[in-house]
Amino acid sequence: MMDNHTQTFIEEAFELLSDLEEALLELEENPGNSELIGRVFRALHTIKGSGAMFGFEDVAHFTHTIETVFDDVREGRLPVTEELVSLTLKARDLIRLMIEAPSDEASLPQDAQTLIDSFRRIADGKNPQPTPTQDPNNDSKGKEASSLPQQRPECTFRVRFTPSADIFLTGTNPLLLLNELNFLGDCRAFANLDGIPHLDDIDPERCYVSWDIILTTDRGMDAIKDVFIFIDDASVVDISMIDSEDSSLVEEETKKLGEILVERQDIGTEELARTLSEKKKLGEILVEKGLVSKEKVEAALIEQEQLRKVKKTPKTEEGAASSLRVPAEKLDTLVNLVGELVTVQARLTQMASLFNNPELVSIAEEVERLTGDLRDNTLNIRMLPIGTTFGRFKRLVRDLSQELGREVEMTTEGAETELDKTVIERLNDPLVHLIRNSMDHGIEAPDVRESLGKPRAGMLHIAARHSGAYVLIEITDDGAGIDKEAIRRKAVERGLIAADMELQDKEIFSLIFAPGFSTSETVTSVSGRGVGMDVVKRTIDNLRGSVEINSEKGEGTTVTLKLPLTLAIIEGLLVEIDRQFFILPLTIVQECVELSREDVELSHGRDIANIRGEIVPYIRLRESFAIKGTRPDIEQIVITGVERSRIGLVVDNVIGEHQTVIKSLGKVYRDIEGVSGATILGDGTVALIMDVARLTDAAYAGAGLAMAN
Fold this sequence. Notes:
- With 709 residues, the protein is of the alpha+beta class.
- 43% of the residues lie in helices and 21% in strands.
- The protein contains 23 helices and 21 strands.
- Strands 6-8-9-11-10 form a 5-stranded mixed sheet. Strands 19-12-13-21-20 form a 5-stranded mixed sheet. A 5-stranded mixed sheet has the order 14-17-18-16-15.
- Strand 8 and strand 9 (470-477) form a beta hairpin.
- Helix 2 packs antiparallel against helix 3 (57-74).
- The protein is extended.
- 27% of the residues are buried.
């Protein structure tokens, strides 16, 4: 049984390995970026130290060799090469394997020693190299171009800047220097105006102002000195450290105003002692006695406030407690409990309206409000940025590029878009298959692309964005596109369609999702077996989403996945058929219209309705679920939007909106077409949740009809 500390190490190690992989892939594109080199080194160093602490000695020993190599890279003794990045990526995979299967449970891979020997060979062949400089394309916001990133303690400095009177004549603007200091950290500047003469005596070409600056930064004193490196000799710059995280300068209490003034040499110790015997505030007394100017007192107060602020603000290490690591199982339990609470709240609301007691109704409304807030906050806890999934695909694209002989540039957009963690977890495999398809079937070889007038490197773009209660994910490439005629021929061969059947582009592309369908003539290690796209469609359908393909031959392909934000609780429309209740996802409901017997007779036996001049087909849920009974004289059609098509569902009554807690069905009901789950109503009645996309597909397949667009 694994103890909690070991489990915590494993979770943090996996996060570090993910960050390591991301940094290595970026480093391959920007080998001179010292910040990325620092990220790689710190990840390796942390894994090594933590591994040894928690008993993963093999991990610590193996990682030590790689860490040593990247220490040489940090110091400029080794360059970043494609070979080094490739070896480190292999080592990263091996470290993960070591953590997942420790040496006492499974033997280490045979190539472990081979990797160590390769790193040692690189280290033994090192030559002195100039220190790598900051990538000019990297937005460092004022960081030192020549300094390598190191973990420095955060310190507070006092900078007293007294420019020479003739500083303007040298072309220097002191305000620009203050702006540079502001980029280094938390900066407070105070202008000393004592030297400004009367208006008649002012020379506009001379500088009469000096500045006191309090700067809290982790960049070190050298970074501050570099800001003033081109200041003329007549200017005075005095830099002193007044507080530090890891030095004896840290004190339990913030320095008093008098101590700061004495330390700054603005007042003598004896003058301070005489003044302290008076009852007024020290600053007021000093100003009244003319011992210091009001501006200097205000500057000292700013310094005191900055020091107090620094001491009260939690440092990075301490601030980690502001976030909490919670096992996914606990979050799932919390969501389930909130779901049960939503059901109970619905029962309370129903009972309150039944008894028509104003006081009880008021309580029910308050409980409903609080339950809604609790539901929203609980679901937000489960929301994760999809960028964590996008990051994994950079490695996949890199490896496939080498395997297939392609040159591919992958870009992403909308990484901050959030989805329910359950959706993200189940989305990984479909996205992997779509990317592999784009790489193998879509993007051409570099020589072929060049002959077609395209750039040698293909483009693969993954984008995510919100669209109402859904998230749209697009996988776009600029490759060969999809050959519609090839799909048609293959579909005719397999008997999926008739040879003379006319299909629109969307219907042709949908044939790709048939089980075992593939137009590839050869089977490779990547694709060609006809296994995958049907699994993609089934997985997305199970997530209550949809897949759409758009392609132009020779120009590229875009696959769009439409996914719900969450799988736990949805807003639904409650409908009834002969005292049987059903829930339709509110996000696909467009409108509700009446269907009278006269309307049915005018359609001459066809299940279509004229909605303001538009012909919309409909399905009778009464017939789909074999519900007996007499239809009412006036029925209701719920118009829904499914994959850009409008389809109606005929029910007896539309009851209204309903907050729906989704309950999964048992194994016996898992394969029922058109049902995605169930929910419990306020009175304990079970209502089925409709999967409208599957319901319409099944209905049209059974009737042999083509769905109208």
